[in-house]
What we know:
By secondary structure, the chain is of the alpha/beta class. It folds into two domains: about 5-165, Peroxisomal Thiolase, Chain A, domain 1; about 175-310, 3-Layer(aba) Sandwich (Peroxisomal Thiolase, Chain A, domain 1), CATH 3.40.47.10. Helix content is about 35%, strand content about 25%. It has helices spanning about 20-25, 30-40, 50-65, 90-95, 110-125, 150, 200-225, 240-250, 260-265, 270-280, and strands at about 5-10, 15-20, 40-45, 75, 100-105, 130-140, 155-165, 175-180, 190, 200, 230-235, 290-295, 300-310. The relative contact order is 0.20. The model has no long low-confidence stretch (mean pLDDT about 95). Bound molecules: coenzyme A. Coenzyme A binds near residues 238 and 297.
Amino acid sequence: MSGSSITGWGSALPEKVVTNADFESRLDTSDSWIVERTGIRERRFGGTTSGLAVDAGAAAIERAGLEPSAIDLLVLSTTTPDMTVPATSSTVHAQLGCSGAAFDLNAACAGYVYAVVAADAMLSAGIGFTKALVIGSDTLSAITDMEDRGTAVLFADGAGAVVLEHREEASPLVLASDLGLDGSLLSILYAEHGGYMKMEGREVFRRAVRACVDSAFKVLRQAGLTVEEIALFVPHQANLRIVEAVAQRLSIPPERWAIVLDTTGNTSSASIPLALIDAVEHDRLSSGDIVLLSGFGAGMTWGSALVRWGA
Ligand SMILES: CC(C)(COP(=O)(O)OP(=O)(O)OC[C@H]1O[C@@H](n2cnc3c(N)ncnc32)[C@H](O)[C@@H]1OP(=O)(O)O)[C@@H](O)C(=O)NCCC(=O)NCCS
């Protein structure tokens, strides 16, 4: 049996901290409204998608004890590329000094789950890839209307990355996955070229909970595992109330959730790796632990993956 394991990880956040009080001073909103309805207290704004990706990627490669040139597959999940052409992964690939292939992947806020599943599958396919760098990087502040209180307080910037190394004598990293979307729901969350995000918050909330719960049960069935066997639930960090609603329906207690949204806001592709890495750095994972990655986003897309930590 062959499989991959996560051997390195790294995060990057812009320096500029924007608190709820900063919004209070210029929008018709309040710290208590934002905290109560979203769980978000502060977030970071700034940087570029490639710049944050390079910082997170470099940290992950160093943590894995590798030279950048050892990376032969770079997958960058992003909704906010630096340019239309070329792919932002080209810039990141050049700046890090990686080898082999690189491509961008856009599945909105479910993108990181898609990226991990895609990279793992490409490593396992026997098509020449051995070490993948999987980065989620987004600068949502650039496509958010800072005058719109319904979205301005939610979205933010950041990046997270992991290194996947393929080994002949290893158990699989991804035990089960479910990637999907309902493209008929485009109108509830979108941004046109050069425009800001438009969102029907309540509808996104409702659909997200349903999609994440159904998808989680699907991967558990696929893997033949029970909820009790999930050591860590790493949800997309959009809104604490969405996390609570999903976790409650799945019966996962709070001590098994990975949460960073109180200090990061919704960083789209970066949110799942940022939460995962925070848990790793707080020694919340041991070798063999089962982790549920769960994302949803514009499209609407969703993605669930059960991965075995340190396999
Ligand atoms: C956006 C969201 C926080 C709004 O919370 P909610 O409890 O659903 O609130 P509602 O949309 O019902 O709005 C209630 C009121 O609060 C107002 N409101 C919206 N944003 C506000 C803010 N920042 N401060 C104060 N009031 C606000 C609304 O205008 C509305 O006022 P009205 O009743 O006079 O029209 C919530 O719907 C949400 O998080 N949805 C999912 C969004 C998401 O995750 N998007 C990313 C997907 S990847």
